[in-house]
Amino acid sequence: MFAALAPSRSLLHRAVRSFALILPMALAACVSTQPPQQAVRRIDPAYAAMYGPRADELHPLPATDISEVDPRFLRREVAYYGREEPGTIVVDTQSRFLYLVREGGRAIRYGIGVGKEGLAWGGRARVGRKASWPSWTPTAAMIRREPERNRPWAGGMPGGLNNPLGARALYLYDGGRDTMYRIHGTTEPWSIGQSVSSGCIRMFNQDIIDLHSRVPVGSPVVVLQGQRLFDVEDELRVSSAY
User: Domain L,D-TPase catalytic, which positions (predicted)?
Assistant: First the structure.
């Protein structure tokens, strides 16, 4: 009687072994179908508010997506070791930063994008005029470079959310002469911190609104080309200041 049970016990043993071998593969197959989890960078609530929507604008401004922006290029107050007087705008085209010098060795630092025109001029100037939601007229060179995009606006584009100058513009003058150099907003926030094909000095719309509100007409501006505002030692001190 007991001998008759032996084959059944052997079959059961083999079944258990087969199940034990198959189970890990089945589980592995299930796991492999799951998409990889990507780390989501946490955005500081202060920055989320800083770059949030502006419903009070002439053209209600949506929030700027800063989730893919290098945090270095977000607005902040930093230590300042330059020689310029408070109230001066300093544009460091090489490092992609704009500084508004303040009292007590401090400055507000903004990230910028630098266009081809932004690399064509350097030196000292003053804010000759300011504009909210400015109109824009492409230059002849811009029309030649991108005719399909720019020729329709040869007569000028009115201010608005699609205008390349963004929400505000500062126009730089030298001795009463328009340098054709602009510090302005942008419709391409991804370009902040980058070198781009056209335009002068572009900023996040929320940042140019902030800068525009802080500087009066006549404010001095220094544009640096081919040189850094701080040396390496100073940069380390600035970096450790926040």
Answer: 87-224
